[in-house]
Specification:
With 554 residues, the chain is an alpha/beta fold. It contains 20 helices and 23 strands. The strands form six sheets. An eight-stranded mixed sheet has the order 7-8-9-6-10-11-5-12, with helices on both faces. Strands 13, 14, 15, 16, 17, 18 and 21 form a seven-stranded mixed sheet that branches. β1 and β2 form a beta hairpin. α3 packs across α4 and α13 packs across α14. The longest helix has 16 residues. The termini are far apart.
């Protein structure tokens, strides 16, 4: 291109490559100010399109200035903002500063949809066209999905996926509305691409979104807001903006209490909570109170196996463990899951969990047996409504595991009542009837909210946040699962049984260890006979063997 052609492809608003600019002293001073202060640059030279006034200067609100300064002074940013708060426009203004005043910078604008990312790039291009020529760089490439400047800096706009940026070298990643990226894609992105991007010493990552339930964005946000020293705290600097900090809407309406009430009438309170109050909880009718769920946290496990076993604590000698099991068919839908609870002392705590949606019910008992032996021959309690009966039979009959707990079924409808073996059908495991589930949910709620059961696990917290009231019972919201929670419901029900209290009684356990067997056999009914606790809401259960034999404890 000849030097006399000062535009790019005939666009008079864009400076072509190789065009030289004679700067005045005032322009030099302004250039230096802009280079050193992105807020100054944006407020004085960036123009945006509004609904009512068209093209206007971008007059930043206070919270937007704070965002830009944090972008500029930190490497990792995660921002939780309400809808219609100008979050994307703010980032675009900063990215424009970043590529203009730094050479050879590569930026990726990634969104949940490619069209969304390209629309953001088009807004950046519009702002670029209205810059004075002495602030512009010459244009080498100006496409729908990418631009490249004469100083070597470039921008790519694409959907958030591993393939979009794999193999590329980027100095900045902007992940827009990251909470709306499908969970499997977000996980793949962070596991395969993110480590490479962040391996540099000056690379930046900006994650901006409105909450959308519990997902990767939620996990990163919670990690960013942890206190220093917390093992789950990450390196992100959190930015949070409340809807009241946005003085007016894009349509010019004042954002006040009246506006809030109008928005709730037009949508719903639940939608307003998510999109404007920026509340991660998707439902207000969860089993566990919202306040408690918001205060719960998770910790990093000791290790996670590729087949879905997560270990938080190794077994401790003489400690008493219970494993409660929920079984699926292994067809990639619901999960076969179990939780291992240390019930030696109160509060009880989760020490291990398993979750896998492709494991065969024929192989599941082997996993249970291996973990149960590891945790001091833990007592195993299995839900047998469906395929779980097969798991219980294999574990007890074929693998000959001795500590499989039993229950007693009575009544024409299989209702759960107290009683001995002579008055009902004794089975390995338990059928989760409406009575069992109702009591289990009630006890679980009490245990968690009063810190009697400590569950510092991300997957369990995620399930609890979508475990909601449904048709006079509780279950997972559509699109979610509750397999780990249901194993905890079984444990909660179990914890109210007299036989459980006998097993967890310290004096009784010490007596067993000292082989004071005969006296215990005289005092306690065999096979875990249980007296009534809550009438038909109860079951008797045992491990199906004479648990008072001394060799059980060797």
């Amino acid at each position: 291109m000849k030097n006399k052609d000062k535009s790019y492809l005939g666009n008079p608003n864009l400076k072509g490559p190789g065009v030289k600019i004679e700067f005045t002293k005032e322009q030099i001073d302004e250039y230096v100010k802009c280079a050193n202060d992105p807020v100054y640059f944006i407020k004085n030279y960036i123009k945006i399109v509004t609904l009512d006034k068209g093209l206007v200067p971008f007059d930043l609100y206070d919270y937007q200035e704070d965002m830009v300064e944090k972008f500029h002074n930190n490497r990792y940013i995660i921002a939780k903002l309400p809808r219609q708060s100008g979050k994307s426009t703010t980032v675009i203004g900063y990215i424009l500063h970043y590529i203009l005043f730094n050479q050879n910078m590569s930026v990726a604008i990634l969104a949940n949809k490619q069209s969304t990312a390209r629309e953001m790039l088009s807004r950046l291009k519009l702002a670029y066209e209205y810059l004075p020529k002495w602030l512009q760089q010459g244009i080498l490439e100006w496409n729908k999905g990418s631009i490249q400047l004469e100083n070597g800096s470039k921008i790519l706009a694409s959907s958030t996926s591993a393939s979009a940026v794999r193999g590329g070298s980027f100095n900045m990643l902007f992940l827009d509305e990251f909470a709306f990226v499908p969970q499997n894609i977000a996980e793949e992105f962070f596991s395969s691409v993110f480590p490479t991007i962040t391996s540099g010493v000056s690379t930046k990552v900006l994650i901006i979104s409105t909450p959308n339930g519990l997902n990767m964005f939620y996990k990163l946000w919670k990690g960013a807001t942890r206190k220093a020293g917390d093992s789950t705290k990450n390196e992100y600097i959190p930015i949070e903006v409340h809807w009241s900090q946005v003085p007016i809407t894009s349509g010019g309406k004042l954002r006040d209490q009246k506006w809030k009430e109008e928005m709730i009438k037009q949508t719903s309170e639940k939608q307003f909570e998510s999109e404007f109050e920026c509340n991660f909880l998707g439902s207000s009718n969860t089993l566990i109170s919202t306040a408690k769920l918001n205060s719960m946290s998770w910790k990093e496990p000791e290790y996670i196996t590729k087949d879905g076993l997560t270990v938080y604590e190794q077994p401790i000698e003489d400690h008493l463990y219970f494993i409660t099991v929920d079984t699926a068919r292994g067809q990639g839908k619901d999960y076969s899951a179990f939780t291992v609870i240390d019930a030696t002392t109160s509060p009880y705590r989760l020490v291990c969990k398993f979750k896998n949606n492709i494991i065969s019910p024929m192989l599941f008992p082997t996993v249970i047996e291996k973990v149960a032996y590891k945790y001091n021959k833990a007592y195993v309690f299995i839900e047998i409504n469906d395929i779980g009966g097969q798991v219980a039979d294999i574990l007890h009959s074929e693998l000959e595991y001795e500590h499989v707990l039993m229950s007693t079924m009575k009544g024409r409808k299989g209702q759960v009542v107290s009683g001995g073996f002579g008055r009902g059908e004794s089975i390995f495991g338990v059928r989760t009837t409406s009575q069992v589930k109702r009591l289990g949910c009630s006890v679980l709620k009490n245990m968690i909210e009063q810190d009697k059961l400590l569950l510092e696990d991300y997957d369990i917290l995620t399930e609890l946040m979508s475990f909601v009231s449904k048709a006079q019972t509780y279950g997972a919201e559509d699109g979610h699962n509750d397999d780990l929670v249901m194993s905890l419901v079984l444990f909660a029900w179990l914890s109210r049984q007299p036989y459980f209290k006998e097993l967890t009684n310290l004096d009784t356990r010490l007596a067993l260890y000292k082989n004071e067997i005969k006296q215990l056999e005289d005092d306690l009914a065999p096979f875990g006979f249980i007296s009534s606790y809550e009438e038909e809401d109860m079951k008797s259960f045992s491990d199906g063997k004479d648990i008072w034999k001394a060799d059980e404890w060797k």
